[in-house]
C-alpha cells in the first residue's frame, strides 16, 4: 500500500473511531440512567440494550477491515504529527484488547454484568448474599475465561491482562512491590496516628439532621467553586456514587445521609475531581482514542487530588467552614475549622471502603486485590468469598464485619464484572499525593489560594500536566513528566506523616 | 435455497431484528434523556450519539445480507405460523423503508434534527423565529429529499411516502376525504356548541395556585388507577409532553402550570394511554417487528381513548372530583363535577393545539396538514411559514396568533424533522371515538365502572382488540376488526353531538 493510501487509511480510522466513541458515549448515558433513573422493571430491557451496544462496539473493533486499516496506517506512522501517532498507537491498543476477547464471551459478559448488578442492588439491601452468589460465581467464571483469553493474546499473566484494560501498562509485579511497601509502613503508621488522635482533643459531635435538600444545595455550590459547569453536567443520586456520562455531559452521583453531611459532601468533591478530568481532556481530540482519559489510576488520582489532597487541607477547610455553617445554620464550637478537620481526618479501622479514611483505605484495597487475584487464579469462588473476606478484614484491619452487606457485598465492582480495577484506587492515592506535592512546588501560592476557595492555580497546573495530555502518554509517563519521578509510595507516606503526625 | 435454509434464514432474521429492537430501545432512552435530563451543553455530544445509533440501525436494515435473508425466508413464508408470517412481512416493510433513504441522508437528517430541536427550545422560549428559520429550512429541504427518495422506492406520492412511515398503509387521498368530511360539519357544529355553551351556566373559576408537588402526586395517583405500573415506568417533566422509553420501561412526561392543574392532569392521562398501549403489546413478541405498536394513528387513538373518551366522561369526572378536592383542598361550588365538566369541555377557538378542545383540535391539525403538504411539495419554505400559519389560523379558527411562539413555533414536530405525523392526531381522535363506542357496546357496564374509577373493563377490551394485536394487522384492519367498520368520521361526530349538544 502506498503512502497516500496509508494516510487515507488513518483518516478512515479517525472517522470509524469517532463513531465508536459516540456509541460508547451512548453506553455511558444508558449506564448512568440505569443507576439513577431506571425503574426496576426496566432491567431486562436495559440489559438487552447494553449487550447490543457492547456487541456493536466489539464488532467494530474486531472487524478484519479495521485491522487492515490500522496496519496500513502504521506504514507511514513516523510521518504523522506526534498526537496522531499516539492516536494511532492507541487505536492499535484498543484493537488488540478487543480482539483478545471472543465475541460470544463479550455478549455473555455484558448480559451477566447487567443482571448480576441488578441482583446485587437487592441482595445488598436485604443482606442476602445467597441470592447474589450464583450470579457472582458466573461472573467470576466469565472473568477467568476473559483473563485467560486476553493473557493468551497479549502475552501477559491473566490478572495483568485484565489490569491492562483498566490501567494501560500496569503490571501486578509493580503493584506487589508498591503494596508491599505500604504494608511495611502503613500498619505501624496507623497505630501511631491512632495513638496521637487518642491523645488529642476528640471531635465534638456535629448535630443533625441535615436535610437532603440543603446538602444537595451545598454540594452544587461547592461543585461550582471547584469548576464544575452545570451547563455540561448534572448531580444525581445513586446507590454507589460514580462519575459517568461524557466529557461535555458529565453525570456525577452521590448518596445522602440525613444524619451526616460530611460523607456526601466529600463524595461530591471526589466525583467532581473525576468529572473535571474528563472535561479537561483535549477538546480537539474529543472523539478520538488519544483524547480519552488515561486509565483508572490517573482517573482516581484526579478525584483524590480534589477530595483528599485539596479539600481536606487546613486551608480549604478553613474556607469551607463558614459555608457549612451558613448552609445548615450551624453554630458553636462543633462548627470550628479545627473540629471539622478532626472529623475529616479521623483515622481508624472501619468496615466500608468508601467511608474509610485515607490511612486505612489502602488496606481495604490490598484485601480486595489479594481476593480478586485468587478469584482469577481459580483459587476462590463466590461460595468461599464471605469467609475469606472476613478473615482478611481481621488480618488487615483487626475487625470482623457483622454481615455481608457491610462485608463482601459492599462494592459494586465484582457484581458488575470489574476485576482488576480495585488496585487503581490506591495507585491513584499514591499518584494524587505525588501530583499535589509537585503542584505545590511548581505553583507558588497554590495552598493560599485554596484558603480563599480558589482552585484556579491547582486546576491550571493539573490541566496542563495531566488533563490536557489525554492518552498521548502512558499513565506512568504522565506521572513522571508531571512530578519528575516514577510512581512511588514516598509522597503518600510524607503526606500521611505531615497531615496526621505533624512531622 | 432449500426449505431448511429458508427456516434458518427466518431464525437468523429474528435474532438480527432482536438486536435492532434493543438498539432502537437505546435510542428511545437517549431521546427521553435529552428532553428531560440532559444539560444544554450536552447537545452536541448527544447529537453525535444519536446519529451514530441511527446509522448503525440503518446499516443493519440495509445490509445486502439482510435482504437476502428476507428473500430466502419468504420462500417458505406460507408454512410459517400466522404471527411469524406477519413478523416476516413487517421485516420486509421495515427493510423497504430503510433502503428507500440513502445512508448519508439518514445521517444528515439525524444530525439536523438533533440540532434544530435544541435551537427550537430556545427560539420558542424567546419568541425568536428568526433563529429557528435557517435550521427549519434545512430540515424542510432534507425532508423533501427524503420524501422524493422514498416516493421513488415505494412507488408513492412523496407526502404519502413519509406518511407511510408513521402510519403504515395510510394515504393522503383517504385523509383528504376524511378531513373534507370534518370540514363539512365541524365549523357549523363548533358554532352550535359555542352558542349552546354561551346560553348555559358559565364555568366558575377554580382558584389556584396548585403547587406542582401536589399536581405531580395527584398525577401519579391517577396513573396508578389507570393501570400504569411504576415498576416499569416513570413520570417526568419536559417542554413538550411525550411518551417514550420501551414497553417495559415506559417514560412519560408532562409540564405543570401552578395556576391550572387541569392541563397537566389530562396531559398525564393522555400519555398514560400511550404508555398502556406499549405495555400491552404482546409480550412474547417483545423484540420483534410484529410486536411493535402499529403506527401513530392507533397510538393516538389509545391516548385519546383515555384522555378524551374515558377521562372526560361524566362518569369518570364524577369519580375524579372528590379526589381533586382532596388533592388540592378544594371546596365550594367551583369543585362540583358539573363545574369541572364545564372546564373540561369548554369549547372555543384557541391558539395552542395541545390545549385545544376536541371540537376545534381537528382544525388545528388540518391547518398543519395543509402546510406540511405544501412544504413537501416545495411550495412553502421556513421564511413564509409564519404568514401562512397566521392566515390559516384566521381561516380555520378565526383568530390570529400574537406571536410565533404561540403560532408556528409551538410544536416540536417540524423542528425535530417530523413531517407526515400531524394528521395521525385527528385520525387517532376519529379512531378513539369509534373504538370507545364499540367497547361500550361490547362490554356492558363499562361506563358504570369508569364511575367507580375502574378502568379494567375498558382496558381488558382494548388489550384484546388493539394492544394485543401488535403489528400483526394493518392499522385500518385493527380498527375494522375491533369496531366492525372502516375508519370514518361518524362515531366522532356522534360523540361530539352527544357530549356537547345532548342529542
TrEMBL record, chains A, B:
GO annotation, biological process: proteolysis
Active site (catalytic residues): 271 (proton donor/acceptor)
Family stated for the protein in its record: Belongs to the peptidase M32 family.
MF terms (GO), sorted A to Z: metallocarboxypeptidase activity; zinc ion binding
Binding site for Zn(2+): 270, 274, 300
TM regions (residue ranges): none
EC number: 3.4.17.19
Required cofactor(s): Zn(2+)
The entry's keywords: Carboxypeptidase, Hydrolase, Metal-binding, Metalloprotease, Protease, Zinc
Enzyme class: hydrolase
PANTHER family to which the protein is assigned, alphabetical: CARBOXYPEPTIDASE 1, METAL-DEPENDENT CARBOXYPEPTIDASE
UniProt lineage: Bacteria, Pseudomonadati, Pseudomonadota, Alphaproteobacteria, Hyphomicrobiales
Catalytic activity: Release of a C-terminal amino acid with broad specificity, except for -Pro
Cofactor note: Binds 1 zinc ion per subunit.
Keyword Protease listed: yes
Protein name: Metal-dependent carboxypeptidase
Pfam families per UniProt: Peptidase_M32
Record function comment: Broad specificity carboxypetidase that releases amino acids sequentially from the C-terminus, including neutral, aromatic, polar and basic residues.
Amino acid at each position: 500500500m502506498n503512502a497516500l493510501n496509508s494516510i487515507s487509511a488513518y483518516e478512515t480510522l479517525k472517522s470509524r473511531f469517532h463513531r465508536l466513541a459516540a456509541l460508547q458515549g451512548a453506553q455511558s448515558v444508558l449506564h448512568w440512567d440505569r443507576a439513577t433513573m431506571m425503574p426496576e422493571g426496566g432491567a431486562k430491557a436495559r440489559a438487552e440494550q447494553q449487550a447490543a451496544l457492547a456487541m456493536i462496539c466489539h464488532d467494530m473493533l474486531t472487524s478484519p477491515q479495521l485491522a487492515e486499516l490500522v496496519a496500513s496506517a502504521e506504514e507511514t506512522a513516523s510521518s504523522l504529527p506526534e498526537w496522531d501517532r499516539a492516536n494511532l498507537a492507541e487505536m492499535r491498543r484498543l484493537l488488540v484488547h478487543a480482539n483478545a476477547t471472543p465475541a460470544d464471551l463479550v455478549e455473555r459478559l455484558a448480559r451477566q454484568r447487567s443482571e448480576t448488578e441488578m441482583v446485587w442492588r437487592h441482595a445488598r439491601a436485604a443482606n442476602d448474599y445467597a441470592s447474589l452468589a450464583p450470579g457472582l460465581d458466573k461472573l467470576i467464571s466469565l472473568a477467568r475465561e476473559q483473563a485467560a483469553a486476553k493473557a493468551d493474546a497479549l502475552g501477559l499473566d491473566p490478572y495483568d491482562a485484565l489490569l491492562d484494560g483498566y490501567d494501560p501498562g500496569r503490571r501486578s509485579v509493580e503493584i506487589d512491590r508498591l503494596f508491599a511497601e505500604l504494608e511495611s509502613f502503613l500498619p505501624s503508621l496507623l497505630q501511631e496516628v491512632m495513638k496521637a488522635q487518642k491523645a488529642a482533643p476528640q471531635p465534638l459531635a456535629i448535630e443533625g439532621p441535615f436535610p437532603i435538600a440543603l446538602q444537595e444545595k451545598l454540594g452544587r455550590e461547592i461543585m461550582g467553586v471547584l469548576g464544575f459547569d452545570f451547563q455540561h453536567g448534572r448531580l444525581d443520586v445513586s446507590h454507589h456514587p460514580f462519575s459517568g456520562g461524557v466529557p461535555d455531559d458529565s453525570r456525577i452521583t452521590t448518596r445522602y445521609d440525613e444524619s451526616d453531611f460530611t460523607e456526601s459532601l466529600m463524595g461530591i468533591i471526589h466525583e467532581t475531581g473525576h468529572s473535571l478530568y474528563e472535561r479537561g481532556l483535549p477538546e480537539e481530540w474529543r472523539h478520538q482514542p488519544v483524547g480519552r482519559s488515561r486509565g483508572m489510576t490517573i482517573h482516581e488520582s484526579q478525584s483524590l487530588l480534589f477530595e483528599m489532597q485539596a479539600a481536606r487541607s487546613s486551608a480549604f477547610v478553613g474556607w469551607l467552614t463558614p459555608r457549612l455553617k451558613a448552609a445548615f445554620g450551624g453554630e458553636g464550637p462543633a462548627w470550628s475549622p479545627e473540629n471539622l478537620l478532626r472529623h475529616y481526618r479521623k483515622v481508624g479501622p472501619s468496615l466500608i471502603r468508601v467511608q474509610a479514611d485515607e490511612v486505612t483505605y489502602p488496606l481495604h484495597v490490598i484485601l480486595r486485590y489479594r481476593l480478586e487475584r485468587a478469584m482469577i487464579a481459580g483459587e476462590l469462588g463466590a461460595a468461599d468469598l464471605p469467609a475469606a473476606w472476613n478473615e482478611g478484614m481481621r488480618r488487615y484491619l483487626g475487625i470482623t464485619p457483622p454481615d455481608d452487606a457491610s462485608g463482601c457485598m459492599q462494592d459494586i465492582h465484582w457484581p458488575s464484572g470489574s476485576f482488576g480495577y480495585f488496585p487503581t484506587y490506591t495507585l491513584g492515592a499514591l499518584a494524587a499525593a505525588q501530583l499535589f506535592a509537585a503542584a505545590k512546588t511548581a505553583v507558588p501560592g497554590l495552598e493560599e489560594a485554596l484558603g480563599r476557595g480558589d482552585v484556579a492555580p491547582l486546576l491550571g497546573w493539573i490541566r496542563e500536566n495531566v488533563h490536557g495530555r489525554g492518552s498521548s502518554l502512558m499513565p506512568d509517563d504522565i506521572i513522571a513528566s508531571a512530578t519528575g519521578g516514577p510512581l512511588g509510595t514516598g509522597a503518600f507516606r510524607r503526606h500521611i506523616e505531615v497531615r496526621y503526625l505533624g512531622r
